[in-house]
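lol forgot to send this yesterday, sorry. struct tokens for the thing we talked abt
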């Protein structure tokens, strides 16, 4: 079994889900008392969030690069960044670490293509929905991406940072998200990416008939496959 390296804490709630899903996945595959071999370096999200909203991405890259090097030095065989937005600095990490990075957008694209989804809606932070680092990765694999309008993007972003990252799950916010998803499907999306690892804490497949692609789940499953492959 390979050792999985995790960069977590962004937020800690979704990282806890990663830890549970990865260990459950290994247990399901191997049975008995088996669990995952992993190394977790969990950062202080308050520091990261402040830098994000100041546009100081170079500083976030420095912080995560140092964290990634520590995970590598501890013996990890490959690395996951347990958040969508911070894949913006993935190239900076890849330029200095010597272990593979399992990119969340690549894992998601593979799942979409496996289900013949060629046009998808994307919900996430404003950074993920509006900047090129994530969407371009999907488009490179032939997947068209639709995002909500400006006011809806603002609301989706607000719910993530002011509710979900604080562990607050609100029915009104769930209804708003579902309405936004319905509009994306009406525009031609064949499914919706939950492109922030916290969104799966708010909206589940049982809430809608729209095919949902929870990036945290997909990423964790890809990690288990690689670790046991």
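and heres what i got for the seq, position by position
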């Amino acid at each position: 079994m390979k050792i999985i390296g995790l960069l977590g804490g962004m937020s800690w709630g979704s990282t806890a889900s990663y830890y549970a899903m990865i260990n459950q996945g290994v247990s399901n595959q191997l049975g008995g008392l088996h669990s995952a071999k992993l190394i977790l370096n969990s950062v202080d999200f308050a520091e990261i969030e402040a830098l994000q909203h100041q546009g100081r991405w170079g500083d976030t890259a420095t912080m995560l690069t140092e964290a990634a090097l520590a995970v590598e030095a501890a013996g990890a065989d490959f690395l996951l960044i347990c958040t969508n937005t911070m894949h913006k600095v993935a190239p900076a990490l890849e330029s200095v670490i010597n272990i593979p990075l399992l990119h969340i957008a690549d894992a998601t694209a593979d799942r979409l293509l496996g289900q013949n989804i060629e046009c998808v809606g994307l919900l996430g932070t404003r950074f993920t929905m509006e900047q090129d680092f994530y969407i371009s990765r999907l488009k490179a694999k032939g997947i068209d991406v639709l995002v909500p309008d400006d006011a809806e993007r603002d609301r989706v972003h607000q719910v993530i940072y002011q509710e979900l990252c604080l562990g607050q799950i609100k029915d009104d916010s769930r209804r708003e998200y579902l309405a936004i998803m319905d509009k994306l499907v009406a525009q031609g999306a064949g499914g919706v990416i939950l492109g922030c690892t916290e969104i799966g804490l708010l909206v589940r497949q049982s809430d809608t008939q729209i095919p949902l692609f929870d990036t945290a789940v997909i990423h964790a499953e890809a990690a288990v496959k690689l670790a046991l492959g």
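The chain has ten helices and seven strands. anyway ping me if u want another try
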